[in-house]
Structure formats: structure tokens, C-alpha cells
# Entry
Amino acid sequence: MPGTFDGAAAAAGAPVPYVWNPDHPMRVGVGPRTGGAVRWFEIAPVFHSHALNAYDRGDTVVMELTTMPAPFHATGRGNGGPGATGAPALDRWTIDLRAGRVRVDRIDDLPQEFPRVNESLVSRRHRFAYAASAAEMWRA
# Structure
């Protein structure tokens, strides 16, 4: 992802020594469960933090996770670009292995983090999920 380590910031004691680097491409990799080469797919730059779940669906891999356009907004580090905000939202990435592309859909734009599914459904399709939200903090 476009978050890259900043050695000078780390040496200065920055609590988050990373910066948003728009020149660093964003890719998602899918590796076969039985081993072998990873396939890489280009995706629009975004910061992702915590995955909700991922599962196979035919010739696609579905991954649900929280994303933020400006990853270090809260700490004042980095630059997400014009108009970026730091509020995390829940997205679905549908990785089409046959077509070689990723479709991104917003599931919920309510600010949230730490999404979870019932542990018995990890890596399987699910209907419900749970997340922590401090929506009022992000609207201030």
C-alpha cells in the first residue's frame, strides 16, 4: 500500500514513522492455499487496517475490510491527497481471478474499526459482522 516507512521520522521518535507515498503502487496479492506463485492485482490507493473476513466464491475471492483514504490523519502524519478524510469505513474487495481485476464496493460508510465475524465463519461466507464505532467522534 502507499504507506512507506520514514527513517527520519523514526529516528526523531515519531509514534507512527510512516508517510503516505502517492508514488508507491497499491496491489493485493492472492496466493493458492496449496502453495505456489502469488498473483498480484492493481487497486486504487487506499490504506487498509483490519480485515473482517475473506472467502472464496467461484472464480473470485471476496475480502471485507476497513479502509481509510488518509491513513495517518489522526496523528498528523502523511497526506491522503486533496479532500481526503481519515474516517475508516467497511469495504468489500471482490478479486476476480479470471478477469484479473478487483472491484471495490462500500458496504458501510459509518466510521468503524476492528470488524469481526463469528469465529466459526472465518474464511467462509457470513451474513452478520460486528465492529466498534465512534461515529460521533468522526463527525465532530
Summary: Residues 73-84 have pLDDT under 50 and may be disordered. The radius of gyration is 16 Å. DSSP finds two helices and ten strands in the chain. The first strand starts at residue 3 and ends at 5.
